[in-house]
Amino acid sequence: MTLSSTPRLPVLLLPFPLILLPTARLTVPISRELAERLQTVLHGSDSGQPVVAAIPLPPPTDSSNTTSLSSPHGIRTAGPVHGTAARVVRLVPVRGLSASVSPRQPYILSLHGLTRIRLAQPLDSDSQVADSLSERPVHYPPADQAPSHEVAAAFKDAALRMLHRLAKDSTHSQRKDDWLRVSVIVEDVPDHRSPWMADVLVAAINCDYTDKLAFLSTVTVEDRLRHATELFIKQTSISEVSHKIANAVDESLSRQQKEYFLRQQLAAIQRELQSLYTTSNAVPAGPPGTPGLKVGGLGSEPDDDEQADADDLADLKKKIEALEAGSEERRVGVREWRRLRRIPQGSVENGVIRTYLEWLTSLPWPSATRSPSANEERIQDSGFLAKARTQLDADHFGLEQIKRRLIEYLAVLRLRSMVAAASQASVSQQPMSQLAAKSAQCPDQNCARKGVKGPILLFVGPPGTGKTSLGQSIAKALGRPFQRISLGGVRDEAEIRGHRRTYVASGPGLIVQALRKAGRIDPVILLDEIDKVGQSNFHGDPAAALLEVLDPEQNHAFNDHYINVPVDLSRVLFICTSNTLDSISAPLLDRCEVVELSGYTYDEKIHIARRYLLPKQLTANGLSESLLVLTDDALLRIATLYTREAGVRGLERALSTIARFKAVEWVNHLDSLACEERSSAVPKGWQSRVEGEDIEKMLGVPRWDGEEREREEKIGVVYGLVVTGLGEGGIMPVESTAVPGTGRLKLTGSLGEVIKESGEIALSWVKSHAFDLGITASKGIDPLKVPDLIDIHLHLPAGAQKKDGPSAGVAMTCALVSLLTGVTTSRDLAMTGEITLRGRVTPVGGIKMKVFGAHRAKVLKIVLPWANKRDVEREVPFEVRQEMQFYFVQTIDEALEAAFGKGVLGWKRDVMLMEGRL
Fold first, then answer.
1. Which residue in the list 578, 807, 818, 848 is annotated as catalytic?
2. How far apart are CA 217 and CA 116, in angstroms?
3. How many angstroms separate the CA atoms of 358 and 563, rounded?
4. Is-catalytic flag, 697?
5. 869 in active site
6. How confident is the model at residue 830 (pLDDT cuts 50, 70, 90)?
7. pTM of the model
8. pLDDT, position 718
């Protein structure tokens, strides 16, 4: 039996004062005859739980007469019409009748209210209607429509006030927690579910029978909510008046009792003090200053925890009140605080909200950083830029391009600070500030409050070039806190944006965590290894989440999913580090200002080792400066033969090995000395100076010495300039050889498609100019087929390293020309550049890194495209250019002349061929 297919329902009368509302449950005793009829209905039902029409009976005319289902006497002539469609949940006999159970009603019936109904005709006054359970036609109300927002809001307001009053008046803690939980549900219930909540609350409270019957008879949704609102207001008023009267009575009656108890306690305290005074006179006193014992012993730890918890809540409330009035963060904080006060302390939701409020109030909001700080006074100091430059020079050697960019940012920061100070100051300020205010008027009067947008710097370079430590130096120069976020291996978008509060153990993202640790709105945040962020997967795309963080036009309102309040990141100085740009997405790269750190020259490495690395290793290994002295020749041998790299990490490890070696010698030397000689700073016989020839004994066989000996002049072999995947420059031999075959070109060495095309272009150009180069006797002859069929094998070692890029065309052309002409190039020469079929040499990238790599490999001559001449003049240091010779070429002819020498190749372009025909 279902609601949709039952136009007629069995009528079950509920005796006064019982009434069943929708969503409620009701248990009533019934007679044996009625139970038998219900069992018949149960057996005939398909679902086993039939639906009946529960109709409440009105109050009898004679109040002294009670009405039951078995004897419905005194029913009014005008029968009831409204009721509830109820499902029969349980029908069981009562075992062992007690005094409270009537023998005439030995069965218990449980009903569950479903929806309102209205009988087609009112019930008559037939006394047999109650036991007959006859079916009657019923009408169901139309589907509930969504009430208006104003009616739903008024209902929620009245319901919340009533629930709070009921919770406040409850004497049992469990009952109080139940009312508070219901209040949370009412606050979060949507408007279209308000009628259902009204049925639940009206059925739960104790109100008059007539009020409940009138509420049951209300059909429309808005009228039902208005009626429930009136009931709640009435119930709240009655509760408040009853509570006020009870308090007044209790106060008047307990005043004398309080006075009596206080006097008894005062007498007990006086007796204890008298007993303590008598005991102290009998026992000798201890020495002065001896602490006495506290009465009662140690305090109770649970009491201490409760007091600490109360103090924490008080501090949390003060932090919320300290937020700027009218701000988004304060509005959210106040709302969550009110929810926290309504939720019981032992609830899980209490801990979740409290953790959220702790995060919200611990962040540095702009409203909390308006007052001038010591950092602003430091920026306005006349020697700010000079001190910052000194700090950068003290921490890092070289890196002039990066230092210049940072000094520009600091100059703008100081100028904006001076303008803001001048706009808010009086006429008696310094003339310098007034001059600055005239030179650059800030269009926004709140420019000081907004601050200067921090640049998004991206340091790109090989490992060990000082990218991370440079960020620390910048923070030290600015006087700001420094936070480092490692993005290597981050594959979840929530690590950046934070987890939503619906998840268990959710929390904010790494950006918000860094702001909380820094404690300021303008820290220096280093996003380390940004090129190693995980790609898009089912957890989201972390690189796409960084777009909002690193966009100066959007990060003033960064949205963290956990905080859910816009966080201002515009004043944060973001510094990103990367080893390569290949794995960074184009939109993310577009938001960053790329600054390349190509590496250090040998002179710079020697200065860095002597100025930073060696003192650090001496301190770490317990040595003094007088116990270990490295000569320039020794440092140069370490840098060239043992640590050929762009950075200085390998150099630092080599210096650490030498320091440990000397530490062992020093300890052995001390043990061999006499006791009287140990007091001297540097005992006799100790050799503190380390020469170049001593390095091999400490570090072993040179790593790069073999390669230097193998680099010699060979036919078909030239050296090209490359950039590794880590951003380090170096040289790579391009080897070619001729083998018997069918005139094909074979390319090996894990080459990509682009570099394979460069080899094809180089061979095509050599074939088309074979006669001009003196390789063939006449034009139109393939040098790979005449006089013998050969194949050319072109190889780029090592085979395990993948290689690709448009920069090997010149080196491949020179290798093929050397192979086919038998002319060799110099061992101290390297080249780079791409070619076209017309013989033009096009520019390539990574010139600075390639030149540094050639300089580390002791290459003296470099062939470069003419278009890269400006890159050499702007990026390569002057001392490196002085030690090397550069050939800038525009065509392949110029490249061959620079590689093999002028006049070495016998060009035949000026020879005129004449053909005679008879």
1. 807
2. 8
3. 11
4. no
5. no
6. very high
7. 0.57
8. 93
